Amino acid sequence: MTRCLEAGLPVASACSGRGACGKCVITVLHGAEALQAPTPHEAEVLARNGAGPDQRLSCQCDPEGAVDLLLTTGYW
Ligand code: FES
């Protein structure tokens, strides 16, 4: 799976996908079960940014295999 930034999707970023800024938070509307669990680092950045349980850092999560995901952000 290509991450959102690598795929050219308009995802906010201030760290170029290094998992530091938290700007790329996405809300997963469908398909979350196909995503790997957040790493401790991603979980810490999500918590620091007040993210909800259905939110992930788009630069840090990949689905396992080919799946359909439905995503949104607060600024799309
Ligand atoms: S782009 Fe900065 S945390 Fe994802």
* Bound ligands, named by name, code or SMILES: FE2/S2 (inorganic) cluster
Note the main sheet.
Answer: 3 strands, antiparallel
Task: Report strand order across the widest sheet.
Answer: 2-1-3
Indicate the structural class: alpha+beta
- Level-1 CATH class name: Alpha Beta
Strand content: 15-25%
CATH topology: Ubiquitin-like (UB roll)
Describe this structure in words.
The chain has 76 residues and is an alpha+beta fold. The chain has a single domain (1-76), classed as Roll (Ubiquitin-like (UB roll)). 12% of the residues lie in helices and 16% in strands. The chain contains one helix and three strands. The protein has one helix spanning 40-48, and strands at 25-30, 55-57, 70-72. It has a three-stranded antiparallel sheet with strand order 2-1-3. The protein is globular, with a radius of gyration of 11 Å. Bound molecules: FE2/S2 (inorganic) cluster. FE2/S2 (inorganic) cluster (FES) is lined by residues 13-15, 17, 19-24, 57, 59.
